[in-house]
Design brief:
Layout lengths: L6 H4 L21 H8 L11 H24 L5 E3 L8 E5 L2 E5 L3 E4 L5 E9 L1 H10 L6 H13 L3 E8 L5 E7 L4 H13 L39 H4 L4 H4 L4 E6 L5 E6 L7
Parallel strand pairs: 5-6
Antiparallel strand pairs: 1-4, 2-3, 4-5, 6-7, 8-9
Helix pairs in contact: 2-6
Length: 272
């Protein structure tokens, strides 16, 4: 009898990927060193875009198609929706001496000819609540992608349309172009692209937050607790985390719902 196909293994395999520019607007929310690895074309050794990740992307595409279709049907007279789905525009911005490319989800034009970039996102229940309550700020990776779109398209504002993955609830919020963002991004990308090596670039998020191992020690004994040395979640999604953190320990961890995910732990040499 022939051995049956291992369908689960097949559905985990990494599909072929098309080459793309090293730094894209969608990646501007990453830490500085991650962008430096991309700019220096460092071989990837970390998170990979496997079949599971592709399904996540395709789910996001399905949400985008659904919400764009609904938005078309409910827009008031005088409003125009264009450059959506397969007709998205390409925008370009030069930062730090390199051209950064992006593709906004669409463009809304009002009766007074005012223009707003449309962004359609799907989010977890936690992310949905956060966006519903606080909108977007520089601590969010999407903020830097969106600001790049606004400056490249020379549009003063935008609108985010967000759907919760578990409940299909929808919320939205309006954004404004941040005039100070461009100079800050230019200086940031210049530091990254002019670096001799990615290791010369600190592990900093765009808002200046450092990415460091978690310090979790017992209050009295000073011994490591369970989560001591855990790396931030941004590192788990980095395609260079093994290069960036030599000797990193990889564990399968579960959240309060029992959902498994990858946990990364790093302790400097000599630490217990």
């Amino acid at each position: 009898m022939r051995e049956p196909l291992n369908l689960t293994r097949l559905l985990r395999e990494q599909p072929p990927r098309e080459t793309s520019p090293r730094i894209r607007m969608s990646g501007l929310g990453k830490c500085d060193r991650a962008l430096a690895y991309a700019h220096h074309n460092t071989p990837e050794d970390g998170r990979v875009i496997d079949a599971r990740a592709e399904r996540v992307f395709r789910f996001g595409d399905a949400v985008e198609e659904l919400l764009v279709d609904e938005l078309r049907r409910v827009l008031p007279d005088g409003w125009i929706l264009r450059d959506v789905l397969g007709e998205q525009m390409t925008v370009r911005l030069t930062l730090g001496g390199v051209e950064v490319v992006g593709h906004p989800d669409g463009l809304l034009i009002g009766p007074d000819c005012s223009s707003y970039l449309l962004e359609v996102k799907s989010a977890s229940s936690y992310g949905f609540r956060r966006m519903e309550e606080h909108g977007l700020d520089p601590s969010e990776s999407y903020y830097h992608q969106h600001q790049a779109y606004l400056h490249a398209a020379d549009v003063d504002g935008g609108v985010f349309l967000v759907m919760a993955k578990d409940s299909a609830a929808v919320t939205h919020f309006w954004t404004e172009r941040d005039s100070a963002w461009l100079a800050s991004a230019e200086a940031r990308l210049a530091r990254i692209t002019l670096s001799a090596s990615p290791k010369d670039v600190p592990r900093l998020l765009p808002d200046g937050t450092p990415l460091e191992p978690r310090v979790d020690l017992h209050k009295t004994r000073g011994t490591p607790n369970k989560r001591h040395g855990e790396l931030p979640w941004q590192c788990r999604y980095c395609s260079h985390y093994r290069t960036c953190w030599p000797g990193v320990e990889e564990r399968v961890v579960t959240d309060y719902r029992g959902t498994p995910s990858l946990g990364l732990y790093y302790r400097p040499e000599g630490e217990p």
